[in-house]
Amino acid sequence: MKQVIVFAGTTEGRIIGEWLAAEGVETLCCVATEYGKELMKPEPGLDVRQGRLSAEEMQELFEEEGRPLVLDVTHPYASVVSENIHAACEKASCRYLRLIRPLASSGQRMGDAESEAVVTVDSVEEAVSWLSHTEGPVFVTTGSKELSKFTALPDFQNRVYARVLATPEVVRQCTELGLTGTHLICMQGPFSRELNLAMLRQTGAKYMVTKESGRAGGFPEKLEAAKEAGVRLVLIGRPPEQEGLSIEEGIRFLAEEFSLEKRPELPEYADTECEMPGSSLADGKGRLAEKEGGLEAAGGRKAFLVGIGMGVLENMTGEALSAFREADCILGSGRMLDAFRDWGKPLFDAYAPEKMIDFVREKPQWRRIAVALSGDVGFYSGAKRLIAAFEREGIETELIPGVSSVAYFCSRLKIAWEDVKLMSIHGRSQNLIAAVRRHFRTFTLLGGRDNVEALCDRLLEYGLSEVRIFIGERLHYPEERITEGKPEQLKGKSFDGLCVALIENPDFRNGLRGCIPDEEFLRGDAPMTKCEVRGLSVEKLGLQEDSVAWDIGAGTGSVTVEMALRAFDGEVWAVEKKPAAAELIQENCRRFGAPNVQVVEGTAPEALKELPAPTHVFIGGSSGSLREILELALAKNPAVRVVINAITLETVGEANACLKELPFTDTEIVQLQTAKARKAGPYQLMMGQNPVYLFSARGKGEA
What is residue 220's three-state secondary structure? Predict the structure, then answer.
C-alpha cells in the first residue's frame, strides 16, 4: 500500500516523488512516457508506473493502493488529465492535492496584444491558421503530441523545424509526418537562452511557436532568445485557470503532513517572479508578493492580519483572499478557520498572541503567515496585540481590513451607521448603559456571559425598559437571523453564543448632566450635598471620561452619581460607613444609570487600602481622618486631584493645614453660601443655607 501517488508530468513532480521516497514515504509515481520513467532516480520505497491511464483505471489504482493521498503535479496545459485525476479521487474517496507549476511573471509573459514581437493565440489550430498567412521558417517547441496539426501549413516539411523529446516513439511519429534530418531536433529541455538562440540562428527561423511553460519549463529563456534573434513569438495562450497550491506551498504541506525536515532541491525559480493559475497573481492582484520587491526578496517573515468579515468566503475582500491563498499557514480562533479547512493549508487554532508566536517560532520555514480576525481589523479585534507580539519576534506585519459587523448589520437593517455609538461588551468592560442613555442608537458585540439575556437584565435594571433591540445572529451565513423586541420580550429566548445587538433609545439624552435637582434623588436619612455645591465641587474635580475617582463619605450618593456620569468610561468608588446609606447609593446609581460605581461599605482610610489608585478624590466626610486619607491618596497617586467640602470651622482648619503641610500644589479655597426661595403665603422668602468651604488642590508628584 502506498502513502502517496504522484502524477509526475513535470520536473517538479518527479523531484517531489523522489524526495518523498527518500524521506521514507511509500510513493508511487505515474508518468506517461518511457522517457519520463527513465528520468526518475531509483529510490527505496519508490515505484514508477509508466503509461497513460483513463479515469476508470486511476480509480481502480487508488482503491488497490488503499486510497492514498494523490498529488496532481502534471503540466499546467494537461487540463484533461487533471480533470480525470480529480474525478477518480472523488469516486475512490481519496484526498486530492493539485500542485501547479508557476507561470512566468506578467513582465516576462509579453502576451499583450500591443506587443509587435509577440502574437498570442488560444490554440495550436489558431497558431497554424495565423502562420498560414506568413512566409519563412517556423521553429516549433510545443512537443510532438500536437505536431501533426502543423501539417496544415503550406510547405510543412520545408518550413517547420520541430524540437521534441529524444525517444524512439517520438522520432517515429515525427518521421511519419515527414520531419527528418535538420528539421528534427531531439533533446530534453529546459534550454538556456544561449542554446535557444543558437538553434534559432541555425534554422534561420522567422517565427517561434511555444506555450507558456513557466520558469521551470524555460519560457523566459525562449522569450529572451527570440527577442535577441529578431524572431516573432507565436504564444499559445495560457491554460485554463486551475485551483491549487504552488509547488512551494505543496512541499510545505507535505513536510507538515509527514513530519519531514529535509526539503527537495527545486529548479531555480522564485515564487515572487511567477504566477499561479487561480491565485491573485494570475489575475493581476499580486500586491502582496510584489510590494517592496516581495517578501522573499527581503529575506524576512511577514504576518498578514486579515479581517474576514462575517467569516464566509463570499464576504471577504479580494485582498483578504489573496493573503490567505499566498500564505504558508493560517492562524485563527475556532470558527475563524472554518472557511479554510478544505484548502489543504496548515491551520493553527489559537486566540492568544503568545500561543501564535510559540507556534510560528517552531516553524521557521513558514515565512508568510496569515491570521484570520473576525470582522474588520480596526473594530474591536485582536490586531493591536498581535502587531506588538509579531514585531517583538522580528516578524513584519501588515493589516488587511474586512467588512465590520456593524457595517454589515446596519446594511441588513437598512440604516446608516455613521451616527451609531460603537461598543463591545464581549470579553471587555464598557459602560453600555451610559452609551444607551446618551445616544439614539448603540451597537455592541455580545458573547459568552455578556449574552442577550444579560443585556436585557442590565437594561431593565437601569430603567431602560422601553428601548428597542435588534439582535443579529450568524450574520451572512445561510442560517442568519435578525430578531427585534424590547428587553422584556427578548428575555428567555434562545440566541447564538456570538451575536450583535443594536439598541435604539428614543428618549436618549445627549450630553452630560450636572447640578441634578435634589428632589430627583432618593434621600432617606443620609446627608446629601446640595445641588449648587455639588455642581461646583464636581466641576472643580476636573474629571475626564476615563477617570478613576473616590467619593469618601458618599451619603446618598448624589456626588457619586454626578461623578459617574462625567467619568462614564471610568470607575467611581463610593465609600460609606453606614449600611443604610450604602444601599441608598446603589438605588440612586440604578436610578440615574451609573453602573460604573462600586460601593464600598467601611470607614476611611482602612476601606481605601485595597482600592485602585485614584486620579481624583472627593471628600465629603472624613470622620476625623482627613490627614490619613490624603496621605493614602498621595501614596497611591502623587499627582492626585482632590476636592474637600468643609462645613465646620474645625474641618476648615484641618483641611487648610493638610494642604499646606502635605505635598500639594495649586491650592484654591472657595467659600460658597447659597440661598433658595421658599413660599410663605403670597410671598417668597430667601432661606440661606450653611456656608460651605471648597478646597481644591493637586499633588506635586507625577502619576
Answer: helix
